Automatic annotation (TrEMBL):
<dbReference type="InterPro" id="IPR014710">
    <property type="entry name" value="RmlC-like_jellyroll"/>
</dbReference>
<dbReference type="GO" id="GO:0003700">
    <property type="term" value="F:DNA-binding transcription factor activity"/>
</dbReference>
<keyword id="KW-0678">Repressor</keyword>
<keyword id="KW-0804">Transcription</keyword>
<dbReference type="InterPro" id="IPR020449">
    <property type="entry name" value="Tscrpt_reg_AraC-type_HTH"/>
</dbReference>
<keyword id="KW-0238">DNA-binding</keyword>
<dbReference type="Pfam" id="PF02311">
    <property type="entry name" value="AraC_binding"/>
</dbReference>
<dbReference type="GO" id="GO:0043565">
    <property type="term" value="F:sequence-specific DNA binding"/>
</dbReference>
<dbReference type="InterPro" id="IPR011051">
    <property type="entry name" value="RmlC_Cupin_sf"/>
</dbReference>
<keyword id="KW-0010">Activator</keyword>
<protein>
    <submittedName>
        <fullName>Transcriptional regulator, AraC family</fullName>
    </submittedName>
</protein>
<feature type="domain" description="HTH araC/xylS-type">
    <location>
        <begin position="160"/>
        <end position="260"/>
    </location>
</feature>
<dbReference type="Pfam" id="PF12833">
    <property type="entry name" value="HTH_18"/>
</dbReference>
<dbReference type="InterPro" id="IPR009057">
    <property type="entry name" value="Homeodomain-like_sf"/>
</dbReference>
<keyword id="KW-0805">Transcription regulation</keyword>
<dbReference type="InterPro" id="IPR003313">
    <property type="entry name" value="AraC-bd"/>
</dbReference>
<dbReference type="InterPro" id="IPR018060">
    <property type="entry name" value="HTH_AraC"/>
</dbReference>
Amino acid sequence: MLTPLHVANECYDPDIMDLPALALRLDFAQYQAEVPVHSHRKCQLVLALHGAVTCNVAGHLWLVPPNCGVWIPSGVPHSNRATPNARLTYLFVDPDAHPLPHDCCILSISPMIREMTHRLAEFDLPYPPDGHQRRLVQVLLEELGQMPKQSFGLPVSDHPKIAQIVRGLITDPANRSTIGDWADRLAMSERSLTRLFLAETGLTCGRWRQQFHLQHALRELAAGASVQQVSLDLGYSSVTAFITMFKKAVGTSPSRYFADRG
């Protein structure tokens, strides 16, 4: 009989210790892929060592790409979904410890920050207030505050009709329904639905789908899927058409993108 997998956020409480920062490593082979909506006082940085994770927070879907992390401010409700092969590091930061972003965002992560976060995850807790652990945390947070933001967020909406479209696209990434097709299903005019989608998300339906395809591709490629499989899953007529979309979005091919990020 298989042992039930644990829910990751039920196995720890980052607020239980009065520390400026602490880190935790998670191998999602041991946990359920879905971490349900929750919040905590400490801010959180989600780093992917392997595989991929998508965070749903602050009205956006946030993918954690290679060499980046999702920053989640204090008290913000969020949920995570990881690929089965994901190995993550969570960095929890006291909101009073150091000036850091007040909004959810994607931060570039330098190799030094990544290694210091890994080292922090090895410390016995609680660590002493005046040891080298505290000094490492101080440098880590100062460096983290210098990291630039990246644009990988995808806006979502609670409007029932827009939510239905979004669910349809997420459930079936190869769905090629036009805005006119969706308008017929939702008993709306195409013009009205076009205006509504833009008002609710800030993007046209076509642009939203393209951005979602990019997030889906980054997630699945990071999880080990081939370019051929991802292009098929997304309904592209050929691998070449998929690679063309990817290059337009990020400026390079999928293989080069991941090679450049190790």
